[in-house]
Write a structure and sequence with these properties.
By secondary structure, the protein is an all-alpha fold. It is built from 6 helices and no strands. It starts with a helix and ends with a helix.
């Protein structure tokens, strides 16, 4: 029991640190990012508004997913991991991850492609695509975990019906 609370506290702290890092990026880096990109690469000036809206929308989805993950940690800490609340939380995390990946793909990747083409750096495209694969991996993991929890919950319900 003590290890579970320690692990829950550790996951909670890591989640808060990820949230603070995302918040710092939104405050200090993202306001200047479109301006710097359009100053260095003037041919991207038509994408400035699109990139700004897309990146901030992805940030909002990121914070929603972090909030829901913190709720999932609380459910696990309270021994309520095998419930319908945890299934809905994992479903929301899965959807947020997919939406984040799509928003990143359509808002930031066009900039990465143009920069990689103008700098003759094809490795930059691979780095950008690998960053897009991370949320899709999170979505796959949360979907797998949701399926496992649903299966365990169904088995427990069937056993309760027998007795």
């Amino acid at each position: 029991m003590k290890n579970r609370n320690l692990l829950s506290a550790l996951l909670y702290c890591v989640t808060v640190l990820f949230g603070l890092a995302g918040f710092a990026l939104c405050i200090f880096v993202l306001p200047w990012f479109p301006k710097i990109i359009t100053d260095v690469y003037p041919m991207l000036s038509f994408l400035r508004c699109f990139v700004t809206v897309g990146v901030y929308a992805a940030a909002i989805v990121y914070f929603i997913a972090l909030y829901r993950f913190m709720g999932f940690i609380k459910l696990c800490a309270n021994n309520d991991a095998y419930s319908s609340k945890s299934l809905s939380t994992l479903s929301c995390i899965c959807k947020c991850s997919v939406i984040f990946g799509i928003l990143y793909l359509f808002s930031a990747m066009p900039v990465v492609f143009v920069v990689a083409d103008s700098e003759d750096a094809p490795g930059l495209i691979l780095i950008g695509l690998s960053l897009d694969a991370i949320p899709l991996g999170i979505a796959a993991f949360s979907s797998l975990l949701k399926g496992l929890i649903a299966e365990v919950t169904d088995r427990c319900n069937k056993k309760e019906q027998i007795f």
